Amino acid sequence: MVINNITIKKLEKNDINKILQIEKSQNVNILKETVILDDMSNSNNTLYFGAIYNDIIVGYIAITYVIDTIDILSIVTMKNYENVGVATLLLEYIFNFAKKNNVNKIFLEVRTSNTKAINLYEKNNFKLISKRKNYYTDTKEDALIYLKEIKKI
Ligand SMILES: CC(C)(COP(=O)(O)OP(=O)(O)OC[C@H]1O[C@@H](n2cnc3c(N)ncnc32)[C@H](O)[C@@H]1OP(=O)(O)O)[C@@H](O)C(=O)NCCC(=O)NCCS
Q1: 78 domain residue, yes or no
Q2: What pTM does this model have?
Q3: Residue-by-residue DSSP string for 2-18
Q4: Can you list the residues of the chain whose pLDDT is less than 70?
Q5: With a 6 A CB cut-off, is 77 part of the ligand 1 pocket?
Q6: What CATH number is attached to the domain comprising 114?
Q7: Which of 18, 59, 97, 131 could form a disulfide with 51 if both were Cys (CB 3.0 to 4.6 A apart)?
Q8: For a substitution probing ligand 1, which of 120, 123, 144, 145 has the most ligand atoms within 8 Å of its CB?
Q9: SS3 content of the chain, % helix, strand, coil (to 5)
Q10: Rounded to the nearest whole angstrom, what is the distance from the C-alpha of residue 3 to the centroid of ligand 1?
Q11: How many domains does one find in the chain?
Q12: Cα separation of 11 and 119, whole Å?
């Protein structure tokens, strides 16, 4: 099934609880509340975007954006809205954002065990460029580093 009419909006401080709920639904804790609050309170280079369906935030993506490079810090879809294209839409939004802002490289890192996320990234033409051994302190898992190069319009 594909859900149509999902829109993307920039998330603000009053959306933090929703971000945390989305993470909870997936049993992950990628970004700490204090970090998100700090990012949203100070106009630093970290931006959050949410996928909105029927007034509900069903997924979010966090990026840092510095000069010509974006790093994807986190992308999470609410558990009961998985596999309908929410994360794909969030990525596409970032690809367009990158094109508009003359960003030519998008980096991300992912655990070797996260097959679903890896599939999503590879389908969206991210290329594996390196591996960080024992990167994640909790499981000693390796991190895979992916890069997508954005062609100028
Ligand atoms: C990884 C994650 C973000 C994917 O989110 P998602 O919204 O389910 O992703 P999508 O629906 O866009 O795509 C996922 C799958 O649905 C399929 N899909 C995408 N769009 C589709 C569509 N329009 N119709 C049918 N299937 C579709 C994709 O092909 C993909 O299939 P695959 O698993 O065989 O590769 C989600 O599983 C998640 O939140 N995981 C926990 C957090 C996490 O690990 N985040 C990544 C590291 S920060």
Answers
A1: yes
A2: 0.93
A3: -----EEEE--GGGHHH
A4: 1-2, 152-153
A5: yes
A6: 3.40.630.30
A7: 59
A8: 120
A9: 30, 35, 35
A10: 13
A11: 1
A12: 26
Residue type, 141: E
Range of the domain at 135: 7-149
Of the candidates 92, 75, 65, 69, the residue with the CA atom closest to the CA atom of residue 6: 92
Work out the burial of residue 87: count CB atoms within 10 Å of its CB; fewer than 13 is exposed, 13-18 middle, 19 or more buried. Answer: buried
Residue 79 covered by a domain: yes
Q: Does ligand 1 come within 6 angstroms of the Cβ of 16?
A: no
Distance 82 CA to ligand 1 centre (A): 6
**Cβ(87) to ligand 1 under 6 A?**
yes
Q: Read off the tokens for 2.
A: 């594909």
- Identify whether 1 is part of a domain: no
Does the Cβ of 61 fall within 6 Å of ligand 1? no
Q: Which two tokens stand for residue 11?
A: 């998330």
Is 2 contained in some domain? no
* 3 close to ligand 1 (CB < 6 Angstrom): no
For residue 59, the surrounding DSSP H or E stretch is: strand 56-66
Distance 16 CA to ligand 1 centre (A): 22
Give the C-alpha separation, 30 to 115, whole Å: 17
